[in-house]
Amino acid sequence: MFKIITDSGSDFRETRAKELGIEIAHLKITFADEVIIQHEEEDVTRFFDKLAKAEQLPVTSQPSPQDFLDLYQKYPGEPILVLALSGGLSGTVNSAELAKKMLEDPERVTIIDTRQGTLSQNVIVAEAVRLRDAGLTLEEAVREINRLLDRTTIVGLIDTLKYLKKGGRIPKSLAAIGSVLNIKPLVELKDGVLVTAGKARGHKAGIKMLFEQVAAYGIDPGYKAFLGYTGDRKDIEEVVLKFKLTYPDVPYEVSRIGGIIGTHIGAGSVGIGFVKQRP
After folding, report:
1. pTM
2. CA separation, residue 141 to residues 4, 131, 136, 240 (Å)
3. 16 with 55, same domain?
4. 122 and 166 both lie in a single domain
5. Domain containing residue 72: CATH number
């Protein structure tokens, strides 16, 4: 049975990782006065509390090659599958590759750039766990995972333009207009990077647009979907209810989106990670 390593871009915390039998290499989030590593939910809560008060956005940094090497050496001689946060969002996959080169037996480690992040990365990791537990070999699991990468995505609704403005991703003038008009951007992960998929005026219209975008692809019920939120659990309740009514045959798990993506979208955002039924 092969071992699975992912990173905290997947937003599995340590408690959940232990339940799944996987290892986590942690990215770091650096504020002016504190470095936060998201081991458990209380760390995520602390992150969003600090983000709300911070004048400048924190800086996220990938795990070091040594972090990955320590995990590889924890399982000497055993086959390992590494499922990394999209190379378009982070250099995490490069750290994993550098650590692999330090091993005497690097061939036992297979590294996949999932081209995904947070909820959609969760989809890939959860499927790898299912394949491992079903008794597939590493090689068999890798073939199945590679078939999923282009079919998996995340669609999310951002509650505020504040953090996109702080990060310089949109002009201040656009953020000001958007705030007055209560604009909610819809984002999607395409080719490993987040892109704007639409804009709605107000929360209700935003949720409607979110589900329209998901419906345009359809959801493959053979894979678990992940419904996520950045702020308070109540923010996802409406999405969960609508999801259950719309996709009663699709298994799902609710997960909190952490600071790696949360740095840029802030609290109050929601999203759905899933395997598309149609390309």
Report:
1. 0.92
2. 11, 6, 6, 30
3. yes
4. no
5. 3.40.50.10170
Question: Three-class SS of residue 37?
Answer: coil
Mark whether 86 and 215 lie in a shared domain.
Answer: no
Amino acid at 37: I
CA distances from 210 to 149, 199, 266 (A): 21, 10, 18
**How many domains is the chain built from?**
2
271 three-class SS? strand
Domain that holds residue 242: 151-275
> How many residues are recorded in the chain?
279
Residues 6+ apart with CB under 8 A from 102: 65, 69
pLDDT tens figures, 16-28: 999 999 999 999 9
Sequence-distant (6+) residues with CB within 8 A of 152 are: 114, 116, 120, 123, 124, 273, 274, 275, 276
Q: In the block, which residue shows the tokens 């419906």?
A: 215
Query: What is d(CA 245, CA 176) in angstroms, rounded to the nearest whole number?
Result: 36
> Tens digits of per-residue pLDDT, 229-271?
998 898 899 999 999 999 999 999 999 999 998 888 888 999 9
* Position 182, amino acid: N
Cα 91 to Cα 192: distance, rounded to the nearest angstrom? 12
